[in-house]
Design goal:
Strand order of the largest sheet: 1-2
Number of helices: 21
Structural class: mainly alpha
Helix content: 55-70%
Oligomer: single chain
Order of helices and strands: HHHHHHHHHHEEHHHHHHHHHHH
Low-confidence stretches: none
Number of strands: 2
Shape: elongated
Length: 440
C-alpha cells in the first residue's frame, strides 16, 4: 500500500495553525493559568516570555509546535501578549538562537506532561490503530484518529511522513488479520471458485464478477428470471453464505465495495490476503443485494399487474355505466307488467314479450351477466387476464427463495409452501381439503 497519501496542500494544512482560531479555543488552550504564568514569568525578556507562552499554548492546542517559519494567527499572539502585558511584536525577536527554542520546547513538554514519540509509543499506537482499521480503512480517517490518540495521550506528534508510513503498515496488517478470520471458512474448492470469478466465462462473454454486479435495467419477467439465475448459480455452488460475524460489518461493507469497483485484472494483481478477503466479502454482499433486487423487481411487477387490473376494473365500470340506462329502462318495463294487478297472472309473460321482445330481453340478460361484478367489487379478479404473464416468473421466484416466518403457524407461509408444491407437481387446482378448511 502507498506510504504517502496526503496531498501537498493537506500536508501544509496539518503542519500549521488552522486559518482561524475560535474564541472558545483561545479561552480553552491559550488562557494562561496561575501555574502557566509562574513558568512564563520566570524567564527574562519580553521576547522569551511571549515565545515560551506561545510554545506552551500551541503544544496544548495542536499537540506539536509548528516550525519557526510557520505563521501564527495574530489573534493568538494578541491574546497571549495582553495577558503578559507585552507588545505582540516582541515575537519577532524570539528564537534568534535555535538552542533557546529547543530548550524552551523541552521545558514546555516536561511541564505539560508530554513525551516524545518513541519506537515503543509508535508500536503501541500501531496496535491500537489496527483495531480502528478493522472498522474503517480510509487512510485520512486513520491518520486523524492517530493524531487524536497522540494528543489525548500527551505524545508529541511526530512528522507526517512517519504517521503516513504507520497508517500504510496498519492497513496492510488489518488486511492480513481479516484474511486470517476468513481463511478457516475457505476450502480448496472455494479458492478455485473465487478465482473463476475473475476469468472470462465464454457463455456470458464476460467475467462472473461483472455478471454478478450488473443490475437489472428494466422491470420485466425476463429481468426477474435473469436475476434469479444469479441466486441459483450462487446456491448451486453453495457460495455467499459464509458466516462473517467475526468481522466488523463496516469492514465487510468496505471490502465488498472494493469488489464492486475493482476490475478483474486489478483484483488478480492483489496479494492473496487482500484478493480473497475482497472476493469473499463481495460475494456475501452481492448475494444480499441480488436477493433484495429480485424481491424489488417481483413487487414492482405485481404492482404493475395490479395497477393494470385496476384500470381494467375502471374500464368495466365505464362500460357498465353506458349500458346502465338501457337496462334500467328494460327493468322498468318488465317490472311495470309484473306489478300491474290488472294483468292476469297467466298473461304476464305474453304481455312482457309484447312490450319487450324476447330476443331483446335475452340479449339484455346476457349483457348483465357479462357486466356483473363479483362481491366485493375489487380488481383481483382481473388478475386472471394476466395469468400467463405472472406464470413466467412466479414459479421460479417461489422455488429459488426460501421463506421463513417468526410466527407459527403462519397461514401466508403455508400458502406459499402449497404453491411451491403445486408448481413442482405441475398442478393448478387447489386441493379440496384446503378449500374446505378455508371456507370453514
Amino acid at each position: 500500500m502507498p506510504t504517502q497519501f496526503l496531498t501537498l496542500a493537506e500536508r501544509q494544512a496539518l503542519n500549521q495553525f488552522p486559518p482561524a482560531v475560535t474564541q472558545s479555543d483561545l479561552v480553552r488552550f491559550f488562557k494562561l493559568s496561575e501555574f502557566d504564568l509562574a513558568q512564563v514569568l520566570a524567564l527574562r525578556g519580553a521576547a522569551n516570555r511571549l515565545g515560551f507562552a506561545l510554545q506552551l499554548s500551541t503544544l496544548r492546542f495542536l499537540g506539536f509546535c509548528p516550525g519557526q517559519g510557520e505563521a501564527v494567527p495574530f489573534s493568538v499572539l494578541q491574546y497571549l501578549a495582553q495577558q503578559l502585558a507585552i507588545d505582540p511584536a516582541a515575537i519577532d525577536r524570539y528564537g534568534c538562537r535555535a538552542q533557546t527554542r529547543r530548550h524552551h520546547r523541552l521545558a514546555v513538554e516536561q511541564y505539560l506532561g508530554f513525551q516524545g514519540c518513541s519506537p515503543g509509543v509508535l508500536a503501541h499506537l500501531q496496535a491500537w490503530l489496527i483495531q480502528r482499521a478493522l472498522e474503517h480503512d480510509k487512510p485520512s480517517l486513520l491518520l486523524e484518529l492517530a493524531m487524536q490518540k497522540l494528543h489525548q495521550d500527551k505524545i508529541v506528534r511526530p512528522g507526517l511522513s512517519t504517521l503516513e508510513r504507520l497508517v500504510g503498515q496498519v492497513r496492510t496488517q488489518a488486511m492480513q488479520v481479516t484474511f486470517e478470520l476468513i481463511q478457516p471458512l475457505l476450502t480448496p474448492h472455494h479458492y478455485r471458485w473465487l478465482d473463476q470469478l475473475l476469468e472470462v466465462d465464454e457463455t456470458l462473454a464476460m467475467t462472473r464478477l461483472s455478471w454478478l454486479r450488473r443490475p437489472a435495467t428494466i422491470n420485466s419477467p425476463r429481468a426477474i428470471l435473469k436475476t434469479l439465475e444469479k441466486l441459483q448459480w450462487l446456491d448451486q455452488h453453495q457460495m455467499g453464505r459464509w458466516n462473517l460475524a467475526q468481522i466488523n460489518p463496516n469492514r465487510v461493507k468496505f471490502l465488498a465495495q472494493l469488489g464492486q469497483r475493482s476490475s478483474a485484472q486489478a483484483l488478480q494483481r492483489h496479494a492473496v490476503p487482500k484478493r480473497y478477503s475482497i472476493l469473499v466479502a463481495f460475494v456475501c454482499q452481492i448475494r444480499t443485494e441480488v436477493t433484495d433486487e429480485v424481491i424489488d423487481l417481483f413487487v414492482r411487477c405485481l404492482g404493475d399487474t395490479y395497477a393494470r387490473a385496476r384500470r381494467y376494473r375502471e374500464a368495466a365500470h365505464l362500460e357498465a355505466e353506458v349500458a346502465l340506462n338501457e337496462k334500467v329502462r328494460l327493468l322498468h318495463q318488465v317490472a311495470a307488467v309484473v306489478l300491474d294487478e290488472a294483468i292476469a297472472d297467466e298473461q304476464v309473460r305474453s304481455v312482457i314479450f309484447e312490450r319487450v321482445p324476447k330476443p331483446v330481453l335475452q340479449a339484455a340478460i346476457a349483457d348483465c351477466v357479462r357486466l356483473m361484478r363479483p362481491e366485493p367489487d375489487h380488481a383481483l379478479d382481473f388478475f386472471v387476464a394476466r395469468y400467463s404473464y405472472l406464470r413466467q416468473f412466479i414459479p421460479a421466484f417461489l422455488e429459488t427463495l426460501q421463506f421463513r416466518s417468526s410466527f407459527e403457524p403462519n397461514p401466508l407461509l403455508e400458502a406459499l409452501f402449497l404453491l411451491q408444491q403445486l408448481n413442482q407437481q405441475q398442478k393448478r387446482q387447489i386441493p379440496l381439503v384446503v378449500r374446505q378448511a378455508n371456507f370453514d
